[in-house]
Amino acid sequence: MDRGHRLSRGAGWVGWILIAAVPLAFLAVFFAWPAAALILRGFHDGASWSLDGFTAVFSSSRTWKAVGFTLASATASTALCLALGVPGAYLLYRTNFRGRSALRALVTVPFVLPTVVVGVAFGALLREDGLLGWAGLGGTPTAIIAAMVFFNYSVVVRTVGTMWSRLDPRLAQAGATLGASALRVLRTVTVPTLTPAIVSAASLVFLFSSSSYGIVMVLGQNRYRTIETEIWFLTTQLLDLRGAAALSITQLVIVTAALWLSGRAQARMTRALRLQPDVADARRLDIRRDGFPLAVTAVVAVVLIGLPVGNLLWRSLHRDGALSVVNYVQLATTSTMGSDLWSATRTSLVTAAAATVLAVLLGVLVALIASRRPRGRSGRGALTALESVFLLPLGVSAVTVGFGYLITLNRPPLDLRSSIVLIPIAQAVVALPLVVRTLLPVLRAIDPRQLQASATLGAGPWRTLLRVELPHLGRGLGLATGFAFATSLGEFGATSFLARPDNPTLPVVIFRLFGRPGAETYGMALAASVLLAGLAAITMAAAERMRPQEVATW
Q: Do residues 442 and 548 lie in contact, with contact meaning Cβ atoms separated by under 8 Å?
């Protein structure tokens, strides 16, 4: 009996290893290979090893300005997001008032918008004839940083708010009983307890801000550059692949460090959440006590979030100062940039759907494997390493992925340069970590006693998987699918490298229209941005309704 049980367990692990080979092969071919080739290109000129590529790039003041602006803008965005987001986290997760759910949904909207749409929205608001044109902020670092804060604000609110809502209220009550003021309790009890969530949120915001390719491309107006836009410039304008590879390696180091810090903080936060009681301690909103966070959150909701989105919609419905739908009519009937609206929309939807199917299928396999519960320390270590491998694309810019494809998948046996198949593959690589991070908490939340009871009743590992784990997994598929589709739909970094001129996606069309002079093309860029934003928001709104309780953060 024991021998049969051991054979069954051995066969089970062989099966899981074979299953793991499928996503590992995909990641090896479409992520590891391009990334490794890119790194080698920075050190090898085809004949010998050298640092000439790095020397040439980093001897240029233009490069240092791009690196400096990347770090400075990401740091400023992170600081502002924390300053504005922590009061919002308190208001939306520790107090209770009418309309709280609607306000939570409102602050979530910016995160699901494509970065190119965010750039267009702020560009429309801050240009000379815009609503805030009098401020003279168009094309300035302030505009870029404001757009980054707009995009990442909800990351802080949701990450910190989730942990804050689960804090044991007895900690603060004990401090108050001992005579500590509310401010002292906040400083000495609450903030130290929230530190893992704050660090996790800060590192994620820094990561997303340092890779806001679409925002900087639209708002920078060629005056302000980041590492990503400089990679684009070196590749497409100067054909300097070695220099671009050197910059890609630099960015890889920066974002991987941010991702590592986020992962450590996220692990600490997860352990802390497991130790907290499942309490619902939201207090009724008190204007005198909660006036400051209420005022900060109201300003953010109205000025930072509501104004750019509302202005984008309003301006898309105007032409020459008059209310009109001519922008939408021309967008639907005019062929621009070698494509028309319907072709670009169809391309976006088809490629996003294909990328979603691919990312969800692979993500399900990865989540099932990473959620195993081996008894040995070596087995647990192997699964932790496996999970980290599939989260690596979060630490690599989509621009780097697209650039890597150009220098690797351009010859037999995988010559895909002119194939549209390459776009959904790149989008699936970008979306895969989000799918994994969405599905894993659902599987890990399964009570081990359920699995033990199934085994006690004679069910084998595969039958337990079919009867117990897969039904639980299905609860997270809606949110995972929504994340994958919205991410793929608005993906601009890799797609800007890979899209064919005669068959662009909607984000690429928007960028091209926005970069051309004339009221007609600008109006169509606004209309296309509203369309793309609406598609992304509807997708995530539907996905959020299916979000399981276990998935509390992104």
A: yes
DSSP 8-class letter at 518? S
Give the CA dihedral 203, 205, 209, 214, nearest 10 degrees: 130
**Distance (Å, rounded) from C-alpha 399 to C-alpha 498?**
10
- Report, in this order, helix, strand and coil percent for the chain, each rounded to 5: 75, 5, 20
Beta bridge partners of 336: 339
Half-sphere exposure of 50 (CA within 13 A, CB side): 10
Angle between helices 100-112 and 519-545 (to 10 degrees): 120
Residues 43 and 95 in one domain: no
- Residues 6 or more apart whose CB falls under 8 angstroms from that of 80 comprise 145, 149
Residues 366-402: tens digit of each pLDDT: 888 877 766 667 766 777 777 777 777 876 777 777 7
The residue range of the domain holding 17 is: 1-50+325-554
**Pick from 315, 344, 371: which residue ends a domain?**
315
Q: Report strand pairing: 414-415 vs 410-411.
A: antiparallel
Phi, psi of 115 (to 5 degrees): -60, -30
Are both 144 and 46 inside the same structural domain? no
Nearest alpha carbon to residue 207 among 261, 265, 159:
261
Distance between CA atoms of residues 203 and 416, nearest Å: 35
Phi/psi for 5 (5° steps) reads -65, -40
Task: Determine the residue type at 29.
Answer: V
- Distance in angstroms (rounded) separating the CA atoms of residues 171 and 187: 13
**CA 129 vs CA 121, 123, 124: distances in Å:** 14, 10, 8
| Mean pLDDT, range 497-516, rounded to an integer | 80
Looking at per-residue confidence, does 536 or 151 come out higher?
151
- 28 and 80 part of one domain: no
Is there a single domain that holds both residue 456 and residue 485? yes
CATH number at residue 436: 1.10.3720.10
Predicted TM-score of the model (pTM)? 0.80
Q: Mapping DSSP to helix (H, G, I), strand (E, B) and coil, where does residue 319 land?
A: strand
Q: Please write the tens of the pLDDT for every residue from 308-355.
A: 988 888 988 888 778 888 888 887 877 665 566 778 888 889 999 999
Q: CB of 484 within 8 A of CB of 424? A: no
The most confident of 94-108, 141-155, 203-217, 388-402, by mean pLDDT: 141-155
Q: Are residues 42 and 108 in the same domain?
A: no
Q: How many domains does the chain contain in total? A: 2
Of the three residues 296, 315, 334, the one that is the final residue of a domain is: 315
User: How far is 208 from 77, CA to CA, in rounded Å?
Assistant: 10
pLDDT digits (tens, 9 = 90+) for 278-309: 455 567 877 887 788 899 999 999 999 989 98
Query: Residue 275 in contact with residue 69, Cβ under 8 Å?
Result: no
- Residue 282 vs residue 362, higher pLDDT: 362
Question: Could you write out the DSSP letters of every residue in 434-495?
Answer: HHHHHHHHHHHTS-HHHHHHHHHTT--HHHHIIIIIHHHHHHHHHHHHHHHHHHHHH--HHH
